[in-house]
Amino acid sequence: MARGGVNKALVSKARETLVSRGENPSIDAIRVELGNTGSKSTIHRYLREIEEEASARLDDEALLSQPIKELIGRLASALKQEAQAAIDESQSKHQHQVQSLTGRIQELEHSLAAINKTFSDKEHELQSALVDLKESKVSEAALKAKEATAAQTEEKLRELLAEKQTQIESLEEKHRHSREAMEHYRQSVKEQRDQDQRKHEQRSQQLQSEIRALNQTLSVKQSDITQLNKDNGRLAAELGSIQKIAAKLEAEQRKLTASLDSKTEEANTLNTKLSELKVQSDELDQLKKLNEELQAWKTEASVSIGKLEAEISIKTDMMNRLLEEKKTAPEARQEKSAAKHG
């Protein structure tokens, strides 16, 4: 329950209660002990006055003898020095470790950010390389299909060219036979001219007709030969064009094969780097675990420092009570002596 007001006696009593329980008599702890009553500035003022009175009692030569005062002073000084040295050493060590750990954590965070960025970049490069590899395989398959089609077309053109060449040779053979037949016929006519002079006029028209028919046949055969020669030239030109296309396709295939080998090597390199990044990630996890252990140690050190401060406060209060008892002892003896004389 909250009380009506706060005075120095209440603050002193609350302080002694906390010390007796082994707690640190801080301003917040005393205010809680008083039922959350009184301002912190007032409690702080009363605490300062109580400490100054305790210090004044230690320096009061009328209440204590010089040897006791010196002994108590040396004990208090030694206790404070030891406590302060322990606190300073612990705080210095703690601050050094905290600074070291903070720097290490920052370095690890920077390293982790760099590793994550590198991992992301390499993964992107790997994906791009895989896409290029897939496109290269598709292009290679298309080129192989084109090459197969071109080879079939070339084979058909070769067969057609051979067929045309056979036709040309057959026509030339027929033309040669026709010339030989005509020559033989002319020779026969010349040999028989004298004998068939009389029949010549009768058969002249018939022979002329036959000659015209033979000439027409010869003209047709010459036209066929000319057309076959043109077809042969066109087929030869087409064959040359197809051979150029085939050579171009072979060059593109070699280029794609080299690109495919290069992309495969890049993919293997990226896989190796990915494995190395995974190892570095495992090491970073271990460092994080170490950081958690150090944070736990930091918490334990803080608790130890709090306990040490509480112990120092308790010892100081014990020293104050000892001094109080030393002060009250002469007064009690005086009262007893006065009672006896009375």
Helix-strand blueprint:
Blueprint: H1 8-20, H2 27-33, H3 40-58, H4 66-192, H5 197-341
Helix pairs in contact: 1-2, 2-3, 4-5
What does this structure look like?
The protein is mostly helical and 342 residues long. The protein is 91% helix and 0% strand. The protein contains five helices and no strands. The protein has helices at residues 8-20, 27-33, 40-58, 66-192, 197-341. Helix 2 packs across helix 3 and helix 4 (66-192) runs antiparallel to helix 5 (197-341). The model has no long low-confidence stretch (mean pLDDT 80).
Structural class: mainly alpha
Beta-strand residue fraction: under 5%
- CATH class division: Mainly Alpha
The CATH level-2 architecture is identified as Orthogonal Bundle
How many helices does DSSP assign? 5
Radius of gyration: 61 Å
Brief digest:
The protein has five helices and no strands.
Write a concise keyword list for the protein shown above.
Helix Hairpins; mainly alpha; 0% strand; 342 residues; 5 helices
